Amino acid sequence: MSLFKRKDSSVYWVKITINGRIVQKSTGTPDKTKAQEFHDRLKVQLWEQTKLGAKRGYSWNEAVVRWLSETQHKASRGDDLAHLRWLDQHLNGVALDAINRDALDQLMRAKLASGVGNSTVNRMLALIRSILRKAALEWEWLDKVPKIRLLPEPSRRIRWITREEVDRLLLELPDHLKAMVRFSLETGLRQANVTGLLWSQIDLTRRCAWIHPDQAKARRAIAVPLSKAAVVIIREQLGKHQSHVFTYQGHPVREVNTKAWRNALDRAGIEDFRWHDLRHTWASWHVQAGTPLHVLQELGGWESVEMVRRYAHLSSEHLAGYVDRLSALHVVEDDADSYDLATANKKGLGEKHLSL
After folding, report:
1. 242 FRET partner, CA 20 to 30 A, in 95, 148, 185, 308?
2. 302: annotated active-site residue
3. 206 is annotated as an active-site residue
4. Predicted local confidence at residue 354, as pLDDT
5. pLDDT tens figures, 4-46
6. What b/e string do you get for 74-95 counting C-beta neighbours within 10 Å, with b at 16 or more?
7. Among residues 190, 275, 285, 286, which one is catalytic?
């Protein structure tokens, strides 16, 4: 029987025998007419491959399986898997060469309709582009890759909170999250590096920790100098777990975006704040304290200084000397602090000049 349904499936399957070889595939549809069309196309394709030596066609599923096997090192693997699970409902069983410009536009509209923003859609499209490029350039499964148009993304401001807001948040957090927040603000480490921190990565005598290359987003080892406050936080965790530094009820912490975290933010009156914004807060505080950008880059393990320039606008101390050169008020430096409106009026300058 060339067209049939399995007991555990609602979709039709095809079974084709060609040159003694049996090929069985899911049609991906419960519609018998569409399933028959799939069967007929597959039969012609297999005949062309066997008799005419035509290039074999590959499916999206086959490409995903191979791509995942070759990219196990990716730091964003968790995000990739989430995108691929969503794409499965649209591309399951679809031929690679059928993923054209129109198909991509349909995927883009469907993703936007799910309520996500342009940046999330772009991450999904970039993943599809990566898979299709490998299929064309490395595996030789495709002759060409369709152009993928990304959506515009507005520049987002850096979200950070003040020390007073941090104090309010810490008062609302349970002890295990409080310790992790304090440590994050002392080191600037990413969420996964804090939750996965092992005692084997800590040297309290030398006051340092380290992140191995396979744990870092940029895939470079990161040396983490520990402040006195960070050392105190680490010492508070001694004896709680054999391997992991931060734990909850005797078990390593796997997730921080919990109800306890969200409720603490609500009670503290802090809105639009993610766990990753603790890293932004740490970097912002450093810049405001005068830490040079190249030093901050090394401390934070960023791959390029351009990633750190996002915080440059938070400090203008290095520019103060230049703006003074063009000051409309040639005030003697020693008198600058005491120069007031009354003094200006006596000299005939008035409020207009003081506002410069």
Report:
1. 185
2. yes
3. no
4. 39
5. 887 767 888 888 887 776 777 778 788 888 888 888 887 877 7
6. eeeeeebeebbebbeeebeeee
7. 190
